[in-house]
Specification:
By secondary structure, the protein is α/β, with parallel strands linked by helices. It has three domains: about 210 residues, Alpha-lytic protease prodomain-like; about 80 residues, Cation efflux protein, cytoplasmic domain (Alpha-Beta Plaits), CATH 3.30.70; about 80 residues, GMP Synthetase, Chain A, domain 3. It has ten helices and six strands; from the N terminus they run αααααααββαβαββαβ. The strands form two sheets. The chain has a three-stranded mixed β-sheet, with helices on one face. β4 and β5 form a beta hairpin. α2 runs antiparallel to α5 and α5 packs antiparallel against α6. About 35% of the residues are buried.
Length: about 400
């Protein structure tokens, strides 16, 4: 069982979550992700056109190169728009846990794109260092264009990062830092143009090497985070401890083991084995498990679903009960021990504990008089110590109603 999520409806009119209480956090997350990505696309298109025009007019090769870099951002935004749309789709038969991993895959692609961008800057900077004297004269207009680009990219980064952190989206965080990498590369262009105007052409190449290394580092950081999620790396020790405490404090839970966690985009999936009283009913054990699940979902908003397995005993080192006979065989064996015909048993509850079985037998009113019951007790007392399957047999006789 999992929390119900609602994806934004394509082609409909978007609603304001403040005025529409039916809007879920997933609806808001999808809508905000689309909005900031379209803002990024619009800004990058305008900047690309400006950088290309000014770069050619002012004879600035670095500004033209930065325009090509900005153009790559538009391609990156296309990845984000696709992944954000797919990630917001509801779970289906092929994707029972939803489509959140599309965001993870997009984060990996963006991380690789960052690393590639940084590597390109490093290579270009090395080339400029080897041929500093051939740099063409640069017009002052290029400096103004570089400063405008720098301010626009930095503003875009701060806007995107604030929204991404509020939505807890690793994909949008990666894209925001991509915008910061663009701002840093624009800073390199501004430094290079300033150096060219002042006669210090080497400043451009040195700054480019520093910033290129920073971008490569950021790319590997986001790429590695996406890879860790794709290989189902668990939560931190502190986060696991908090979830463990929530489950362990559930009434009816006597013990817990095999607590496992994994991320899926901005959400978390949890599996846990809980130990309950071995002699309670199946329905009561199920209720304990459902209570533990609900407590985790209520106390940890990042958790999408919790799978709780109920154990009658700690089976961490193995489950010997799986080697015991099934119910039909044990009932026949039990009747032979008691010397009772099949119609005599109203209900029989079997407890598979360790490598033996405990039986609770419920007899109807008038099943036997005191002498017959005493005879059954003697048979059980005599046969039980040497019996291969049963460790204990308890007889119960219903008094009412008839």
């Amino acid at each position: 069982m999992s929390r119900e999520t609602h994806s934004a409806k394509m082609g409909g009119t978007p609603t304001d979550p403040a005025t529409d209480p039916a809007q879920s956090p997933e609806d808001e997350r999808f809508r905000e992700g689309q909005r900031i990505t379209w803002v990024s696309v619009a800004v990058n298109i305008v900047l690309t056109a400006m950088q290309l025009v000014v770069g050619f007019v002012a004879h600035s090769q670095s500004l033209i190169a930065d325009a090509m870099h900005t153009l790559s951002d538009i391609v990156a935004d296309a990845f984000v728009l696709f992944a954000n749309r797919k990630g917001a789709e509801a779970a289906d038969a092929d994707h029972p846990y939803g489509h959140g991993r599309f965001e993870t895959a997009a984060s990996l692609v963006l991380g690789l794109l960052l690393a590639g961008t940084g590597g390109g800057i490093l290579i270009a900077a090395a080339g400029r260092l080897q041929d500093i004297g051939s740099a063409p004269p640069v017009g002052v207009a290029a400096m103004w264009a570089a400063m405008i680009t720098l301010a626009a990219k930095e503003g875009l980064f701060r806007y995107m990062l604030a929204t991404a952190e509020r939505l807890r989206s690793p994909m949008l965080v990666a894209n925001a830092w991509h915008a910061r990498a663009d701002a840093l590369s624009s800073l390199v262009v501004a430094a290079g143009i300033a150096g060219a105007l002042l006669g210090f052409n080497f400043a451009d190449a040195v700054a480019a090497i520093i910033v290129g290394a920073m971008i490569v580092r950021a790319g590997f950081k986001f790429g590695w985070a996406a890879i860790r999620e794709l290989i189902d790396t668990g939560l931190s020790a502190e986060e696991v401890a908090a979830i463990r405490q929530t489950i362990a404090s559930t009434p009816g839970v006597l013990g817990m083991h095999e607590l496992r966690t994994r991320r899926m985009a901005h959400q978390v999936l949890v599996d846990a084995h809980v130990q309950v009283n071995p002699r309670i009913s199946v329905s009561e054990g199920h209720r304990v498990a459902e209570s533990a699940r609900k407590r985790v979902l209520d106390s940890h908003p990042e958790v999408l679903d919790v799978l709780v397995h109920v154990d009658a005993e700690n089976d961490l080192l193995g489950n010997a009960a799986i080697q015991l006979p099934d119910r039909a065989f044990l009932l026949e064996h039990l009747r032979s021990l008691l010397g009772a015909s099949p119609p005599g048993f109203e209900t029989t509850i079997l407890h598979y504990l360790g490598n033996r079985v405990e039986a609770e037998v419920f007899l109807p009113p008038g099943f036997a008089d005191e002498a017959k019951l005493a005879a059954i007790r003697r048979r059980v007392k005599s046969a039980l110590p040497e019996d291969r399957w049963f460790a204990e047999i308890r007889l119960n006789q219903r008094v009412a109603p008839d």
